[in-house]
Amino acid sequence: MSKPVRTYELTQSEASGDTGPMVEFLQIGAIQPVSIDCSDLRHIPTRCLQILLAARRHWAEAEQSFILTGVGDECRHALRTLGVSETTFQFEGI
Prior knowledge:
By secondary structure, this protein is an alpha/beta fold. It has a single domain, classed as Transcription Regulator spoIIAA, CATH 3.30.750. It has helices at residues 12-16, 20-26, 46-61, 73-81, and strands at residues 6-9, 34-37, 66-69, 90-92. The chain is globular.
């Protein structure tokens, strides 16, 4: 029986400023799959990206899926500029 996916909507203002709510959401731990909705983002600032990378690694170690959804072309280009390859995250709904 698969576990339900927990979803979080990441806004550009949050990604660029106070990442506290996202960190609080992620602190529950990798007990079930997570989907981060990035449809509001044009880019992912470095600090926010570091949090997402650490969380993705934690979820992978727990063998849970960690998915970014709604990542547009502009945001993907920004990720590549920061050295993030297309295989770093699992993307859906693009």
